Amino acid sequence: MIKCVILDDELLAISYLKLLCEQIEGIEVVKAFNNPKTFLQEVENTDCDVCILDIEMPGMNGLQVAELIPGKKIIFTTAYKEYAAEAFDLDVVDYVRKPIRKERLAQAFDKIRNIIPEKKDFIEWHTNLGKTIIFTSQIIYIKASGIDSRDKEAMLDDNTRIILKNLSFKQLLDMLPEKNFAQINKKEMINIQHVKVFSSAEIIMDLASSEGNPVKLFVSDVFRVHISERLTR
């Protein structure tokens, strides 16, 4: 599933684009914006694979918006062909002319599929047990090691604890299925499928500690909105 956000100052254009996306298999529109400033405030905390940006907008155009979100995969839409060269200078995925046809938009998403690496249902990494394959469905949560913060401790559903050697949370998020894993504070990330109870500041996992109590994890202010959206979607 490719998750996208839309930015266009015209509500009718947003509705039409969402309709086209719904007709393309494997595409989900997670959010739509008609204001560039609101988009920039929220996009970093939005779980998405690609941003579809209109170029001609009052106040701040799509080219200016794209420059402020480096690293994001972008598809530009516009009725004006003169922006094509400048758009591709920004190394965007595609440039789709309006009026947008479903077939042409599907081609743009095919390019995204070729760029996004396929996430497997397991990870393979050096651990305290040597090179180890861990099936992602077995991971309940992962936290920074108390001995060496460069290492990460993965707690599995059978209470096995595996030490992942010299691995950052960013690397983990790139390796793990995005739909299932999310960071909740600077030192911990969870498998969303194993969340039992969620409140504004705490998550209870479906795993008991060595003392027999449910595992409770802290949600920091930085990640609260994002994790709330992920769990209530």
UniProtKB/TrEMBL annotation:
BP terms from Gene Ontology: regulation of DNA-templated transcription
Superkingdom per UniProt: Bacteria
A GO molecular-function descriptor: transcription cis-regulatory region binding
Keywords: DNA-binding, Phosphoprotein
Gene Ontology, cellular component aspect: cytosol; protein-DNA complex
Positions where 4-aspartylphosphate occurs in the chain: D54
Protein name, entry field: Two component transcriptional regulator, LytTR family
SUPFAM superfamilies assigned to the protein according to its UniProt record, in alphabetical order: CheY-like
InterPro entries referenced in this protein's UniProt entry, alphabetically: CheY-like_superfamily, LytTR_DNA-bd_dom, Sig_transdc_resp-reg_receiver, WalR-like
PANTHER family assigned to the protein according to its UniProt record, in alphabetical order: REGULATOR OF RPOS, TRANSCRIPTIONAL REGULATORY PROTEIN YPDB
Matching Gene3D superfamilies: 3.40.50.2300, LytTr DNA-binding domain (2.40.50.1020)
Annotated ranges, domain Response regulatory: 3-113
